[in-house]
Amino acid sequence: MGDDHSHSSRGSAAKSWLDKIAAIFTAEPQDLSDLVEVINEAAMRKLIDNDTQSMLQGVLDVSKMRARDIMVPRSQMATINIDQSLEQMMPLLLENNHSRYPVVNEDKDHIEGILLVKDLLQHALQGSTEWSLRDLLRPAVIIPESKRVDALLKEFRQKRYHMAIVVDEYGGVSGLVTIEDILEQIVGEIEDEHDHEEDVDIKKMASHVYQVSALTPVDEFNESFGTSFDEEEAGTIGGIVLHAFGHMPEKGETIELQNLTFKVSKANNRRLVQLQVIRAKTTIDTSALQKD
C-alpha cells in the first residue's frame, strides 16, 4: 500500500508540474512577469535560442523605460556652437564620428537645431562660402524625461527622425536620445566601422601616451605597463579605473593610479569605452630597455 501511495504521490506531482507548464503555454499571460516566464520556458525547451530570448527580454525592458533611463546625459553630449566655423568644427567631428549633432547657442540649454554631417559635407565640398550654419539645421525634436521609450521608438520610425533632445520639468536640457540608443537596449551594443579601430587593446600614440581599450584584461595591462593592479578587484582595466573614480566619469576626467594618468577619452552613460594612459616622464620605459 505504501509503495502504491508513493507512486501515486510522485505521479500527482509530475502531473501537477506538467499542468503548470501547459498552463503557461495555453493561458494568456496576465502580466509582464507571466510573459517573462513564458519566454524563459520557451528558451529552456529550445523553442527559441538565447539571442532571441535576450531580444525579447530587451523589448519588455524597453516597454518599462522612460527617456531619462537611456539618454546620453547633458555632460556627455557632443555639441556644436552656432558661431563655429567649419575649421573649428572639424576636430569635434573627427573625434566623435557621429552622424548628427545638436547645435547650441552659448550653452546646451539653447538648442538651435540638429546638424546632419552629410548636409555639412555637401556644402563644404561645393567650396562655397555663401552659406550659414543656421541654414543647414534640421528642427530639434524636444521630449520630456518621462517620455516612454517604446512610444519614442514608434515616433522615430513614423516621423523619420533619429535624435530627440530630452528636457526636465523646468525646460532645461538634461540629455539626448537617439534611435540607436533604443535599439541597443533590444539587440545589445551596436558597433560601426569606426569601432573596429578599437580592436587593439593597447596602442602607443606617442612616447609616453597610449590608447587603451577599457576592456583590456588587468593581467594584460599589468604585463604591458609594469603595474600591479589587483585582478580580483576587477577583470578589466576599465573596471579598475571605474572603481577608483567611485562614479561614472565624464569624458575628459582624469585620475592618477600607480604612476600613470588615466584620462577618459570615450564613454557612454553605461560604461567606459576608451582610456588614454599617460606615463610619468620619469618612469623608465622597460619595454624599450628590453629591445636594446
Automatic annotation (TrEMBL):
An example Gene Ontology molecular-function term: flavin adenine dinucleotide binding
Residue span, CBS domain: 71-130, 136-193
Gene3D superfamilies with a match to the protein in the record: 3.30.465.10, CBS-domain (3.10.580.10)
Keyword Magnesium: yes
GO cellular component: plasma membrane
SUPFAM superfamilies to which the protein is assigned, alphabetical: CBS-domain pair, FAD-binding/transporter-associated domain-like
Pfam assignment, any one: CBS
InterPro entries with a match to the protein in the record: CBS_dom, CBS_dom_sf, CorC_N, FAD-bd_PCMH-like_sf, FAD-bd_PCMH_sub2, Ion_transp-like_CBS, Transptr-assoc_dom
Keywords associated with the record: CBS domain, Cobalt, Magnesium, Repeat, Transport
Function of the molecule: Plays a role in the transport of magnesium and cobalt ions.
PANTHER family: HEMOLYSIN-RELATED (PTHR22777), MAGNESIUM AND COBALT EFFLUX PROTEIN CORC (PTHR22777:SF27)
Similarity field: Belongs to the UPF0053 family.
Protein name: Magnesium and cobalt efflux protein CorC
Organism: Rheinheimera mesophila
